[in-house]
Amino acid sequence: MPENISQTLLAVAGTLLGVALGILGTYFVSIRLARNHAKALSCLRLRDAFAPEVARLQHLDSAHYYQTQDILKAAFDKHQMAVNEFGFFLNGNKLKALNEAWKEYCTIYGEYCDFYQYNKDPHTAIDRIDAIIGLTRE
Asked: Which of 25, 33, 61, 121 is deepest in the core (most CB within 10 A)?
């Protein structure tokens, strides 16, 4: 009789251990999936934040290049928020690359970003935006 009880206890303990490991595994996998989903969503938001301005800049004729600064300035807050959100999911070299691409895109004076440099050639702005968005393709 005591032998049956010890075997039963061993079986119950093994089952409980298996259940606990299954719960922990499921928990950690779900955390990772949620983080991956949030990162993918931030990638989408970053691309969507820049899309309208890129489309407008691509269709400017040279007589209207002076509008480049106004187009980018009007969307600066939207772009900054999207870059900040995306940066939250990066670390190390990827975060450094994002910060460098952002600094290349805009020259910040205090709280303001100067886009005057792009009034001569909006395609430079498009190239720098592509460098930022390119970091979402990894």
From this structure: 121
Ordered by start, the domain boundaries in the chain are 41-137
Neighbouring C-beta atoms of residue 129, cutoff 10 Å: 21
**What is the CA 55 to chain-centroid distance, rounded?**
21
Contact of 136 with 43, CB cutoff 8 Å:
yes
Q: Please answer whether residues 50 and 129 qualify as being in contact, where contact means their C-beta atoms are separated by less than 8 angstroms.
A: yes
Q: Are 53 and 75 in contact (CB under 8 A)?
A: yes
Question: pTM of the predicted model, to two decimals?
Answer: 0.76
CA angle 5, 7, 9 (to 5 degrees): 70
CA atoms within 13 A on the CB side of 61: 1
Q: Quickly list DSSP for 80-138.
A: HHHHHHHHTT--HHHHHHHHHHHHHH-EEETTEEE-GGGGS-HHHHHHHHHHHHHGGG-
